Amino acid sequence: MALESAAHTPPEAWDEIVVRVLKANAVRLITYVPDKVLAPLIRRLHADDYFTVLCPAREEEAVGIVAGAYMAGLRGIVLMQTSGFASIPTVLASLAVPYQIPLLMLISERGTLGDHQLGQAIVCRLLRPVLESLGIEHHAITRLDELEFIVGRMIQQAYATQAPAAMILSPLLTNRR
Amino acid sequence: MTATPFKSAERDAAKRMNRSELTRRLVSKLKREEAVVGGIGNTNFDLWASGQRPQNFYMLGSMGLAVPIALGVALAQPQRQVFALEGDGSLLMQLGALGTVAMAAPSNLAIVLFDNGVYQITGSQPTLTSHGTDLVAMARGAGLAQSAWAADEAHFEALIDLALAGGGPWFIAARADDQPPAGVTERDAARIRSRFMQGIAVAG
Q1: Domain locations in chain A?
Q2: Rounded to two decimals, what is the model's pTM?
Q3: Is pLDDT at B1 greater than 60 in this prediction?
Q4: For residue B201, which residues of chain A lie inside 8 Å, CB to CB?
Q5: B52 burial level (CB within 10 Å; 0-12, 13-18, 19+)
Q6: How far, in Å, are A92, A133, B165, B189 from residue A122 at the CA level?
Q7: Is residue A1 scored above 80 in pLDDT?
Q8: Strand bridging mode B118-119 / B125-126
Q9: pLDDT digits (tens, 9 = 90+) for B182-192
Q10: Where along chain B do its domains lie?
Q11: Does the beta carbon of A56 lie under 8 angstroms from any beta carbon of chain B?
Q12: What pLDDT does residue A11 have?
């Protein structure tokens, strides 16, 4: 019986795990520009009083808000999709990197593994080369059982080393049913 | 119906003032460790020249982000008054930020715009405000009801006094003349951040 009920307990969804890890690391300020894949996470964050959630008009703004909040003692994160990331290299290169700001980025990886949007597919190719050339730590998360480890460790390392971090949510994680 | 070119009577009526002098007047009123974020270029050069307060943050890049950075500081420290100083060219790059500030509605945030109508640091090419764009009207349209052109120096000081009393967000715009800045900011980004964090009581 015990075995059977355990088998019927649904595993924690990826968005639930992200919320739990953000809380465990006192990341209270959420800024995002919407993305369909991130929608369940965004809904969960809006519904939770622990978080202050802002949806500015552009990803660059989100980076500025999180940078300012960090300097004033409040931890934050920017949620975006791949095409949004492609709009922020100039502010990463002139704000987050030189000022040594532990900017957390959670990026939904669009444009790969079956995405039908041609624009997304092309812009997706920018993601890793830009992160590499700026020397920004990044990991793609493909497995539910590695999500907590990667996100938690990357957040801790970002603050410990005063450096931005890009956590890439692969369709292998977010689109697997 | 004919289309008549928009001309802002309010902006036209405002006196052109000196950015360095207005910055000094603003800074002289700061008695409670208020945070000030200076936008890229001559805006933060004049902030630097007004005295290197540890509560000043100087942006060396990220054009247009003075307002978002100041918003982040204001959200993190609701008890501290925060000013964002920005130029017209910079603000035009990130107009959505006005709506974001209106949505977040931090009572402790004031945006101060110095509108000289040109990209002064790159050779004084005209910005859109030289062609009729009224950034106070845009701020109001974005939802910042407390937005005004400073008619002259005394009015500028009166608007700053209002902002210092809280009740924000505020949008205070001043037309600026063509004089160069009074100094040049240091270029050590990590030191700027660290000093700012210590200045606003965060170990950096």
Answers
A1: 14-174
A2: 0.96
A3: no
A4: 73
A5: middle
A6: 21, 18, 50, 33
A7: no
A8: antiparallel
A9: 999 999 999 99
A10: 9-199
A11: yes
A12: 87
User: Any CB–CB contact under 8 A between A33 and chain B?
Assistant: no
Q: Is the per-residue pLDDT at A5 higher than 60?
A: no
Q: Parallel, antiparallel, or unpaired: how do β-strands B16-17 and B35-38 relate? A: unpaired
Beta-carbon separation of B57 and A56 below 8 A: no
Residue B56 pairs in a beta bridge with: B36
Average pLDDT over residues B126-154: 97
CB pairs under 8 A between A and B: 122
The torsion angles phi and psi of B109, rounded to 5 degrees, stand at -120, 135
Rg (CA), chain B: 16
Residue pLDDT, tens place only, A110-158: 999 999 989 899 999 999 999 999 999 999 999 999 999 999 999 999 9
Residue to test with chain B: of A71, A75, A159, most B Cβ within 10 A: A71
**Beta carbons of A29 and B75 less than 8 angstroms apart:** yes
- Shortest distance between the Cα of B3 and any Cα of chain A, in A, equals 30
Residue of B nearest to A61 (CA): B68
**Interior angle at CA B80, CA B64 and CA B68, nearest 5:** 15
At which residue do the structure tokens 């000013």 appear?
Answer: B83
User: Quick check: B68 and A64 CB within 8 A?
Assistant: yes
**pLDDT of res. B51:** 95
Contact B65 A57 (CB under 8 A): no
Asked if the Cβ–Cβ distance from A71 to B65 is below 8 Å, we say no
Helix/strand/coil for B118: strand
* Superfamily for domain range A14-174: Thiamin diphosphate (ThDP)-binding fold, Pyr/PP domains (3.40.50.970)
Element of type H or E holding B110: strand B109-115
CA A20 to CA A24: how far, in whole Å? 6
Provide the b/e sequence for A105-114 (b: ≥16 CB within 10 Å): bbbbbbbbee
What does the pLDDT look like over A50-75, one tens digit per residue? 999 999 999 999 999 999 999 999 99
How large is the average pLDDT for residues A80-105?
98
CA gyration radius for chain A? Answer: 16
CATH code of the domain occupying B9-199:
3.40.50.970
What DSSP state is assigned to residue B134?
A: -
